[in-house]
Design brief:
Layout (H helix, E strand, L loop, with lengths): L1 E4 L3 E5 L2 H13 L7 H11 L6 E5 L2 E3 L4 E10 H4 L7 H9 L14 H13 L3 E2 L4 E2 L4 H11 L4 H8 L6 H13 L6 E6 L4 H7 L4 E2 L13 E5 L12 H12 L9 E2 L2 H13 L2 E6 L4 E5 L4 H13 L8 H15 L5 H19 L1
Antiparallel strand pairs: 1-2, 2-3, 3-4, 5-8, 5-9, 5-10, 5-11, 6-7, 12-13
Helix pairs in contact: 1-2, 5-6, 5-13, 13-14
């Protein structure tokens, strides 16, 4: 499965031939490498026990990271439905049924804040790198820009939150209060993992749905974010042997932080067992020292999460130059300084030129 591809970078599932390529690469660096560890990853992947990712950079193969996070939009299952994909029209229909005074996301989400996530996620569907063309004049992309325009500006958000001061806790509590009242449709998460699933289920009335960002092609609306160490060695490095030793040392000490999903089976099983046996602390009363907790995850809930995890086919790695160009063109529209037709025309012309130059 391919998770990301551009002119120089390809991130995909590990393949049988990779085991020998990676082993040869380690041996070339002077290590007494054993192909068995890569073959074990491939066997575990074939049995559905882990996901193993490999990255090719300009045709060279690299192992890049040992854990992932999930970036997605979540909401109450009884409001957004038990699904992992929806269109922009589905989202708008769900929001139209919300009580008066509701917001799509947290009340302090500005137009500039949400545009980053939505444009990054949507852009890939309108770019054909192999052909060097783009289709930002598609009606669905126009609708996406119009939807982003409905969010408040930074100035409007600042006025709305002025009474809360700079206290982060006050902003969080206000957002949570609105969620409990059913006045918020979704929340954007950049770190959804098994560790915190019980927390998000409790916050959204018992079960949250991993509905994701709106897509028009029926694909899953969520993506992976690389977790743990993400390291590379520059071609101009003065001491490649020492650099490789450092990278190898870091990458062989697997991630053990919260809110990541290990890609190695044994490490994942430890987190899974904890999630199924240990209560999740939701809040603490520091006067009485009483804890408000959520029960451990059930076997069924873990299975649902794993099915969702295995269905994700995108990764949060972007062509920064391309995204900067898209924002440069779209930001004046979001600020009210340029109309939609002109914005679409500029996107088609300038992004199309950029893509053709990359071929």
């Amino acid at each position: 499965m391919v998770f990301y591809q551009d002119s120089s970078l390809l991130i995909r599932s590990m393949e049988p031939r990779d085991a020998q390529v990676l082993t040869d690469g380690e041996r070339a660096q002077g290590w007494d490498a054993d192909i068995g560890k890569f073959q074990k990853r491939l066997r575990d992947q074939a049995q559905g026990l882990c996901v193993s990712l490999a990255a090719e950079v300009d045709g060279g193969l690299y192992m890049a990271f040992d854990a992932v996070r999930i970036q997605t939009l979540v909401g109450a299952e009884n409001v957004v439905g038990d699904r992992t994909s929806w269109t922009l029209r589905d989202l708008q229909d769900a929001f139209a049924a919300m009580p008066e005074g509701s917001t799509v996301l947290s009340f302090d989400t500005s137009r500039s804040a949400i545009s980053g996530s939505l444009l990054r996620y949507a852009a890939g569907a309108y770019v054909d790198r192999e052909a060097g063309t783009c289709s930002f004049d598609d009606p669905s992309f126009r609708s996406m820009l119009e939807f982003i325009q409905t969010f408040p500006t930074d100035d409007e958000v600042n006025k709305e939150t002025a009474g809360l001061g700079d206290a982060w806790d006050a902003l969080i509590e206000e957002a949570r209060a609105r969620q409990r009242k059913g006045l918020q449709l979704l929340e954007e998460l950049t770190y959804l993992s098994l560790d915190r699933l019980a927390y998000w289920d409790a916050l959204w009335g018992g079960r949250c749905a991993f509905v994701g960002y709106p897509v028009e092609d029926g694909s899953v609306g969520s993506m992976f974010r690389p977790g743990g160490p993400q390291l590379g060695i520059s071609s101009s490095c003065g001491n490649k042997e020492a650099a490789w030793e450092f990278v190898r040392t870091v990458m062989t000490n697997l991630s053990d932080s919260q809110s990541v999903i290990p890609l190695e089976r044994d490490a994942y099983e430890v987190k899974k067992n904890t999630a199924m046996t240990v209560k999740t602390i939701l809040d603490i009363n520091y006067v009485t020292n009483e804890e408000l907790t959520a029960p451990p995850l059930t076997e069924e809930r873990v299975r649902e999460f794993e099915e969702f995890f295995n269905s994700i086919d995108k990764i949060c790695i972007w062509d920064i130059s391309l995204m900067n160009l898209i924002h440069e063109i779209c930001d004046p529209y979001f600020a009210g300084a340029k109309d939609l037709d002109e914005t679409i025309r500029l996107l088609q012309n300038r992004v199309g030129l950029y893509l053709s130059e990359q071929m």
